[in-house]
């Protein structure tokens, strides 16, 4: 079973109330080959919500306690991001997911890049909080851009 970001399956759960529909991912969910998760909603955040970025590092640094997740107005939402990451990990283990497809650039889900924490639309290499936790626990995390890597295995 694959886990996939809910926004990639077409649910309007992104910070601004939109989705990032990937038709192939939507089809995998419909076929019962993938299950949707949204770490930010699992962490208690609502839709819509202010955009959030990791300040002072990436998801690894957040998990290590040396970086924080803040919304654009400055409020710290680190605890919600960590809670959502652990809930996503629990679900991944429960369903036996060895691969998770997460939305690139997200402060939760980014698997190679995230925004730099300055709300300037600048991306930097790094992991989101959920991606970092899943990787720490031996679960492969890829972005929607690399979906073809796993399609042959389904």
Summary, kept brief:
The chain has helices spanning 23-30, 39-42, 59-64, 78-95, 129-136, 148-151, and strands at residues 2-5, 34-37, 52-55, 68-71, 99-102, 113-115, 123-125, 140-143. The protein has 154 residues and is an alpha/beta fold.
Descriptive overview:
The protein has one domain. It has 6 helices and 8 strands. The strands form 3 sheets. Strands 2-1-5-8 form a 4-stranded parallel β-sheet, with helices on both faces. It has a two-stranded antiparallel ribbon with strand order 3-4. Strands 6-7 form a two-stranded antiparallel sheet. It is globular, with a radius of gyration of 14 Å. The model has no long low-confidence stretch (mean pLDDT 96). InterPro entries: 2-thiour_desulf. It holds the Pfam family 2-thiour_desulf.
